[in-house]
């Protein structure tokens, strides 16, 4: 009788232990997967933000430099036109 009464308890304990092991393994696997996924997601977001900021800076600088270059060229052209017309009207003709 003792073996018969001990066996169900032992089987029950083994069954519970297996359940706990499986559940703990699942929980740990899910936790690690989610943690890993969260890290990958955060890393991707971080990189996306970097790329967005760098692209915005690049485009802003490009537009600013292009605009500045055009304004400088326009100013130089205007200055040359003024100098040319000044020379033309101040030079005595023979």
Would you mind describing this structure in some detail?
This protein is mainly alpha-helical. Helices cover 95% and strands 0% of the residues. The longest helix is centred in the middle third of the chain and has 89 residues, at 2-90. The N and C termini lie far apart (140 Å). The model has no long low-confidence stretch (mean pLDDT 84).
Question: Short description, anyone?
Answer:
The protein has about 90 residues and is mainly alpha-helical.
What's the layout of helices and strands?
Blueprint lengths: L1 H89 L4
Q: Return the average pLDDT rounded to an integer.
A: 84
Low-confidence region ranges:
none
Structural class: mainly alpha
Shape: rod-shaped
List how many beta strands DSSP finds: 0
Largest sheet: none
Helix share bin:
over 70%
The radius of gyration computed from the alpha-carbon positions, rounded to a whole number of angstroms, is: 40 Å
Fraction in beta strands: under 5%
Q: Sketch the topology as an H/E string, one letter per element.
A: H
Work out the helix count. 1
Distance between the termini: 140 Å
Descriptive tags:
rod-shaped; 94 residues; 95% helix
């Amino acid at each position: 009788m003792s073996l018969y009464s001990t066996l169900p308890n032992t089987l029950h304990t083994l069954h519970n232990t297996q359940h706990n092991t499986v559940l703990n393994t699942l929980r740990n696997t899910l936790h690690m997967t989610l943690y890993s996924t969260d890290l990958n997601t955060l890393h991707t977001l971080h990189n996306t933000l970097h790329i967005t900021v760098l692209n915005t800076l690049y485009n802003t600088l490009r537009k600013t430099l292009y605009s500045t270059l055009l304004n400088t060229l326009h100013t130089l052209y205007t200055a040359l036109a003024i100098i040319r017309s000044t020379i033309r009207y101040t030079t005595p003709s023979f």
